[in-house]
Amino acid sequence: MRYETVQLLKVEDFKRSTGVQRSTFEKMLEVVETGLRNFGRPTKLSRADQLLMTLMYWRE
Question: Domain span at residue 23?
Answer without folding.
Answer: 3-59
